[in-house]
Write a sequence for this structure.
């Protein structure tokens, strides 16, 4: 057995840190925060979300507000997806890119109910970098940007019974009327609570944003109602099966949305940072593409393992891989040379000293169950 | 509290060795299986493979993590526990019954570098 790493350095805690410790969570550093990796176990938590409901502390995520007469024009300029014409109460997924097409971050954009107001929800590890990038880009636009990440807590309630749980525990019947990627504003203890029908698991569910104090209370109510607390361990296995990328693994300054197969979230009927580079890549001028690979063995392809042809030529690298809990298959995402990215292309994965044959498959391994 | 069996030798990297004549039976400790959580796959060498003391001979995989298995002795693999291919959870159930490989030792004096039960207990600090 190799050594177990001991975390060093300053780590932040979310508002739910004490709740996790009290529940006996296994805590570990992630994105600069001490976060729960698992409570009961990754497999049990994964299955709770697929079959019933589970909840995650995602208070580490970043909330950046953009307001002012040019807010729409500005968000549209830094965001790959099209925000013009978004109705209030709608949410869009997309990326921010560098001029060379590399990814600054992937994020959700909320079109608020107040005119000229947007909320950007970004990855925890990127909050400082994103905010600096946004402040740099905003020059010349008539709008203000505010990083309120520390003022908001967030819970993701996910699973086929999420709606039932939310209404039973908190009583907000308006949640039932929300379609996927829609949100509404309600109040909890006199403070704003955003109910957003979004998530990162491939199941129906909600993300709840409110004050840290409210989040601690709401978490406790869900615990008492029997909702399974779930850690980052199964958050990763769930999002992976659903074909969803993780920034740092499948998206990065070196991996553009086009390379990652996320071109459907890039709209070219407008000017935005990175547009020319992405159009160039879309036209075929790119080296690597993200694919799914399935191998016919129980061995697990992990991030960093080489992808090879049957002849032993290295043509790529694994970015995320698991023995899938819901599908009982060994599958992975891998970045491979574009000539080897077509479906059914035979590719092998080198796992330590052995080579396991497999083939390119669709990245959405699991049939998602979103609210229509 | 993790179980530690008397009469076995232990490595710093949490493998145990049971000496049967010139054969070293190798597995991982109860402490190690607890640290790993649910084990889903055991990557093992093949019979007749050579292993070296201090070097990797396979791996344990849980859902989230992969952990290398380090051979406590040098020699030739004479038997692997094929039962673990289909039932890796046996390592979680009883880490001392679920041996992984048997090695025909090339140099039995390598055993002197390993810890006894008391020494291992002190190392894991439980």
């Amino acid at each position: 057995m190799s050594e177990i790493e001991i975390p060093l350095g300053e780590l932040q805690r979310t508002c739910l840190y004490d709740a996790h410790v009290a529940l006996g969570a296994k805590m570990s550093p992630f994105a600069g925060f001490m976060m729960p990796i698992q409570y009961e176990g990754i497999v049990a938590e994964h299955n709770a979300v697929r079959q019933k409901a589970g909840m995650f502390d995602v208070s580490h995520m970043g909330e950046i507000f953009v307001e002012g007469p040019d807010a729409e024009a500005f968000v549209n300029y830094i965001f790959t997806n099209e925000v013009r014409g978004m109705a209030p109460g709608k949410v869009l997924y997309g990326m921010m890119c560098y001029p060379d097409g590399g990814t600054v971050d992937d994020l959700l954009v909320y079109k608020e109910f107040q005119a000229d107001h947007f909320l950007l929800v970004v990855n925890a590890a990127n909050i400082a970098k994103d905010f600096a990038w946004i402040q740099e880009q905003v020059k010349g636009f008539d709008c203000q940007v505010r990083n309120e990440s520390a003022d908001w807590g967030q819970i993701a309630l996910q699973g086929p019974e999420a709606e039932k749980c939310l209404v039973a525990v908190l009583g907000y019947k308006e949640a039932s009327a929300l379609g996927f990627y829609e949100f509404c504003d309600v109040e909890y203890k006199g403070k704003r609570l955003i109910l957003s029908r979004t998530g990162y698991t491939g199941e129906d569910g909600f993300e709840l944003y409110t004050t840290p104090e409210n989040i601690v209370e709401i978490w406790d109510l869900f615990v008492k109602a029997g909702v399974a607390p779930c850690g980052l361990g199964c958050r990763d296995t769930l999002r992976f099966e659903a074909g969803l990328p993780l920034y740092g693994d499948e998206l990065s300054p070196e991996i553009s949305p086009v390379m990652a197969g996320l071109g459907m979230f890039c709209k070219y009927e407008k000017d935005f940072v990175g547009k020319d580079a992405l159009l160039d890549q879309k036209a075929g001028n790119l080296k690597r593409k993200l694919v799914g690979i399935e191998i016919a063995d129980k061995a697990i392809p992990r991030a960093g393992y080489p992808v090879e042809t049957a002849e032993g030529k290295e043509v790529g690298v694994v970015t995320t891989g698991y023995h899938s809990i819901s599908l009982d298959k060994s599958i992975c995402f891998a970045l491979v040379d574009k000539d080897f990215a077509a479906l059914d292309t035979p590719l092998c994965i080198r796992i330590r000293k052995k080579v396991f044959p497999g083939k390119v498959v669709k990245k959405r391994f699991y049939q998602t169950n979103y609210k229509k | 509290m993790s179980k530690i069996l008397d009469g076995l030798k232990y490595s710093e990297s949490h493998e145990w060795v049971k000496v049967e004549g010139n054969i070293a039976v190798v597995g991982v400790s109860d402490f190690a299986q607890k640290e790993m959580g649910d084990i889903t796959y055991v990557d093992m060498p093949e019979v007749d493979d050579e292993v070296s003391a201090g070097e990797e001979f396979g791996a344990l995989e849980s859902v989230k993590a992969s952990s290398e298995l380090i051979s406590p002795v040098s020699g030739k693999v004479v038997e692997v526990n094929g039962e673990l291919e289909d039932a890796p959870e046996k390592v979680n159930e009883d880490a001392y019954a679920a041996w992984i490989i048997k090695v025909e030792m090339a140099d039995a004096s390598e055993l002197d570098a390993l810890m006894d039960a008391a020494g291992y207990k002190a190392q894991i600090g439980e």
Notes: The CA atoms of residues 60 and 124 of chain A lie 5 Å apart. Chain A touches chain B through 22 residues (CB under 8 Å). The helical segments of chain A are 17-22, 42-51, 71-78, 127-137, 162-170, 212-224, 232-241, 275-282. Residues 1-7 of chain A have pLDDT under 50 and may be disordered.
